[in-house]
Specification:
single chain, alpha+beta, endopeptidase fold (from Nostoc punctiforme), 6-stranded antiparallel beta sheet, 4 helices, globular
Length: 149
């Protein structure tokens, strides 16, 4: 990924900071809301990596209860898996709670592992460490978005 593309991704991601968490929403700003999946989509759509997609607004509880792998499968359509050693700015970290079989959270790398940006329930879009708090024991997979064709 070029430095220019990394900068565009990080600038777009940072523009969402302090947006409250709201399941299935995608409105930037303090009066808006976004969840972690829509945050990833909105950033990479705005920067030209992901085309416009239609979303099924299935509830999060149902998504987890049915152990639906759609989140990870969608990321994999537009990204290549990379190793932890290859992770750089603008890459995506997907997370799996050890109690579940599916990946249910994602963040965008600013400086791995010190800083990632993501939408967190009750906090909104914030910068944290990649393994802070509830993510400390979650499995991680790493992805780099492919340039759109």
């Amino acid at each position: 990924m070029t430095l220019e593309k990394q900068r565009a991704i990080l600038a777009e991601a940072q523009s969402w900071r302090l947006t409250p968490y709201h399941l299935t929403a995608a409105i930037k700003g303090r009066k808006g809301g976004v969840d972690c999946a829509r945050f990833i989509y909105e950033v990479f759509h705005a920067t030209g990596f992901i085309p416009e997609l239609k979303f099924d607004y299935t509830s999060l509880r149902r998504f987890i209860h049915e152990e639906n792998p759609l989140y990870l499968e969608t990321v994999m359509k537009f990204a290549d898996e990379i190793t932890e050693q290859e992770v750089g700015p603008g890459d995506v970290v997907m997370y799996r709670n050890p109690r579940l079989t599916v990946f249910t959270h994602a963040s965008i790398v600013i400086e791995y592992p010190r800083a990632v940006i993501h939408a967190i329930h009750q906090l909104g879009v914030v910068v944290t460490g990649a393994s802070e708090g509830f993510l400390s024991n979650w499995e991680k997979r790493f992805f780099r978005m492919r340039a759109s064709e």
